[in-house]
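Action item from last meeting closed. Structure (335 res):
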């Protein structure tokens, strides 16, 4: 393979990049070209004060065979190489290569990084899913070079596997929880208060709906602190990109004319990736967050989505809705 180091984000590779992603075992929305371009522009919504792009591409007979979407972080001594998207706002990350090319790509990547980028000490990769074949490929390549390798769990990532039928889904979860979901949905529906839920589809109204979503998010003090100006810019860019690519699901529950709850998800690869949420606590008597989550699960089953991925975080409600654990890892290669 022929390796190339890109010290600016390679905007011209969008088509090839996303085509390669379709062959990559970890095919997740956070590895799409447009998402990582936006993330690089805002430096992760301000998570990083500085970063030096160090994207590596590999070609074989002219074909794009692998991408290591990296940056150099000089805040540590020695500097470390990390995945674009690290750490906080991109739930799943990875290298990009087909299963057939992955080991060869990684075998060549490590010596290329050693020669092309001076001074770094570790390849520090956050947010790899536990079943990513990159983990074994990295360990094999590192051992061959006499380098160190370590990996460990850093987060839960609960997921619901959907049967494709609402009643079958409900029958598969805890009886008490099944009763609670039905009771809360029925209580709102029988309250006599006007209520509806909807998914944003109108491009002309998108900016206003994003404003409404951010306003719901910032009712939570922790999320209000999270929403710095740079993070707001990042959120807007990510939502616009997802909408343009047809994979944004921004859903609202309205009660008595007011927006009571919202969920931001990616509707991607026949599954829902639940990214963030917002809640107006003045509507808490109607349990709007749970009710909207119930509507989304019903929609996902009826529309034949195969998974309801809560992504990182082990909040109790995820398991009460029937999620089962998987884990996100951090892998570190040390020269």
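Sequence:
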């Amino acid at each position: 393979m022929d390796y190339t180091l890109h010290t600016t984000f390679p905007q011209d590779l969008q088509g090839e990049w996303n085509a390669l992603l379709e062959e990559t075992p970890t095919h997740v929305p956070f590895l799409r070209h447009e998402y990582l371009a936006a993330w690089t522009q805002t430096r992760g919504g301000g998570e990083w004060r500085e970063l030096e792009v160090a994207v590596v591409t590999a070609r074989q007979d002219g074909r794009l065979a692998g991408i290591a979407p990296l940056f150099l972080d000089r805040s540590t001594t020695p500097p470390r190489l990390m995945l674009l998207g690290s750490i906080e706002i991109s739930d799943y990350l990875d290298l990009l290569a087909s299963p057939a090319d992955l080991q060869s790509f990684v075998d060549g990547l490590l010596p290329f990084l050693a020669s092309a980028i001076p001074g770094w000490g570790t390849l520090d990769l956050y947010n790899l899913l536990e079943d990513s074949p990159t983990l074994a490929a990295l360990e094999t390549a590192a051992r061959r070079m006499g380098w160190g390798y370590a990996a460990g769990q850093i987060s839960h990532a609960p997921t619901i596997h959907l049967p494709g039928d609402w009643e079958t889904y409900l029958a598969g979860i805890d009886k008490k929880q099944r009763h609670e979901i039905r009771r809360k949905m029925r209580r709102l529906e029988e309250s006599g208060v006007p209520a509806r839920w909807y998914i944003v589809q109108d491009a002309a109204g998108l900016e206003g709906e994003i404003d409404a979503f951010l306003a719901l998010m910032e009712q939570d003090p922790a999320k209000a602190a999270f929403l710095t100006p740079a993070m707001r810019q990042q959120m807007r860019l990510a939502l616009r990109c997802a909408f343009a690519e047809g994979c944004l699901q921004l859903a609202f529950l309205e009660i008595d004319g007011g927006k009571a709850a919202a969920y931001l998800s990616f509707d991607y690869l026949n599954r829902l990736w639940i990214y963030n949420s917002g809640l107006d606590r003045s509507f808490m008597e109607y349990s709007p967050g749970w009710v909207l989550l119930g509507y989304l699960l019903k929609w996902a089953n009826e529309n034949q989505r195969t998974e309801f991925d809560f992504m990182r975080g082990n909040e109790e409600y995820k398991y009460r809705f029937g999620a089962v654990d998987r884990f996100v890892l951090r892998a570190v290669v040390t020269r």
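Note appended to the action item: DSSP finds eleven helices and 16 strands in the chain.
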